[in-house]
Write a structure and sequence with these properties.
alpha/beta; Aspartate Aminotransferase, domain 2; 7-stranded mixed sheet; 4-stranded antiparallel sheet; 14 strands; about 35% helix; globular; binds pyridoxal-5'-phosphate
């Protein structure tokens, strides 16, 4: 590996860029199979499916095979799957849901739509996923559910989470939106908790453009999710027929997906093993190149777990470096070297309002003023939320850098990315 000398001027000072190769990244692209499937639907005039038949049934069968659950229910977004999961879990007024703060906001905001209160938990510094010890500390008599997020494809330590849930009679919801195809001790994510929720939006590993899928082994949880948002799948459907007496009207929310999105998702699901294999190989290679760079800490997979999905690759800057140089400055310097590096989006939610447990929606804003399901007086704990501190999350999130979940690049390009990090980290005095 080329090791830049101390004297090399950084690219931000007009020096040569460390990355000279084009990235060549082609994922995501629309597979030919998706075009064929969507054209076939168009030719047959199938532009909506209410009863879960056809391409929807085909996708759900394939997803059940991947995750190993009895049920899979496609929806029009990952957010819809999370709302359905919380509703199915009996999350309601006066109840609390334990959640990580370090996640996309849609893991949490549906809790509010059930008139319940999210209670924020800390993460593990090594894996960036929810810390079971903090979950155990925050269980109260109001807790109804735990939402764990397999962030950036790294798998949550599910055994202690399930033990806490068992002890207190809680439902565990796995938000596996970043982790399609990941496993914990040989078990697919989405099958370990009571419900799995997978976004299939945009750049997700199994993408339908805009779509989601929920998984469960429990017929009643499945029925409750169907009843919330799937007019037309009711009485005839699978499950325990919990709501047969109510007919197939459902509660009126419409969460079924567009069949074209499911055709695209099915075609992407077929490529998932290849995508995961490429990303795992590339992340391991990049981590190998980065491990000896001073001031850089890699985010390694948990032992006995297979990482999947990824969405983004993450690196930590050491505390001692972050105390002297901000990640903004490092990001600028490394990006100017030609590496596709950004600050981490969730550390400052989508580059706008800081960590979620500090966001106005959960702290200063009085949600009761919104009316509707937000009115329930039990659902508002605003002022006290201001005092929530999550030491690990707040530390780690000042020192995270992000790059793409590379699937389609060669090793020389990855080596050049590591060179960009090395060049900047060994020339900090130039910043
Ligand atoms: C962790 C996580 N949960 C939930 C969602 C929401 O999914 P969707 O955008 O499909 O509604 C996302 C989307 O990015 C996500 O990253």
């Amino acid at each position: 590996m080329a090791t830049p000398t101390q004297a090399t001027p950084l690219a931000i000072h007009g020096g040569p860029k460390a990355v000279t190769l084009p990235d060549g990244e082609r994922w995501p692209f629309v597979p030919e199979a998706a075009k064929k499937r969507i054209n076939a639907l168009l030719d047959a005039g199938i532009i909506t499916i209410a009863d879960g038949s056809g391409i929807v049934a085909e996708f759900e069968a394939a997803f059940k095979r991947l995750v190993g659950t009895k049920y899979a229910l496609t929806m029009n977004s990952g957010t819809a799957t999370l709302h359905s999961a919380y509703f199915a879990a009996g999350v309601g007024p006066g109840t609390e849901v334990l959640v990580p703060s370090y996640t996309w906001h849609a893991s949490i905001t549906p809790v509010l739509h059930c008139a319940a209160t999210p209670v924020f938990c800390d993460i593990e510094p090594d894996t960036l996923v929810i810390a079971p010890a903090d979950v155990a500390r925050k269980v109260s008599s109001r807790t109804r559910a735990i939402c764990v997020v397999h962030t950036w494809g790294n798998v949550v330590d599910m055994d202690p989470i399930m033990a806490i849930a068992k002890e207190h009679g809680l439902i565990v919801i796995e938000d596996a939106s970043h982790a399609h195809g990941a496993t914990y001790k040989g078990r697919p994510v989405g099958s370990i908790g009571h419900i799995g929720c997978f976004s299939m939006q945009g750049a997700k590993a199994v993408s339908g453009g805009e779509a989601g899928v929920a998984t469960t082994d429990d017929p009643e949880l499945f029925d409750r999710m169907v009843f919330l948002g799937h007019f037309g799948r009711g009485p005839k459907g699978e499950g325990n027929h919990t709501f047969d007496a109510l007919g197939d009207m459902s509660l009126g929310t419409k969460y079924r997906p567009h069949p074209f999105a499911i055709a695209l998702a099915l075609s992407n699901l077929e490529r998932l093993p290849e995508l995961n294999q490429r990303r795992t190989r590339n992340y391991a290679f990049l981590n190998d190149c980065m491990r000896d760079i001073p001031g850089i800490e890699t985010v390694e997979p948990r032992a006995n777990c297979v990482r999947g999905g990824y969405l983004e690759f993450k690196f930590k800057v050491s505390r001692s470096v972050a105390d002297c140089v901000s990640v903004d400055t490092l990001e600028r310097a490394i990006a100017t070297e030609g590496a596709p590096v950004t600050k981490d989006r969730y550390s400052n939610m989508n580059f706008t309002y800081g960590l979620l447990h500090k966001a106005p929606l959960f702290t200063t804003f009085d949600r009761r003023t919104l009316g509707g399901c937000f009115y329930d007086p039990h659902s508002y704990t605003g002022p006290s939320d201001k005092t929530v501190t999550l030491p690990v999350t707040e530390d780690v999130c000042t020192r995270l850098l992000s790059t793409l979940a590379f699937a389609d690049v060669d090793e020389e390009y990855l080596r050049q990315i590591a060179d960009a990090f090395r060049k900047v980290m060994t020339n900090l005095e130039q910043l």
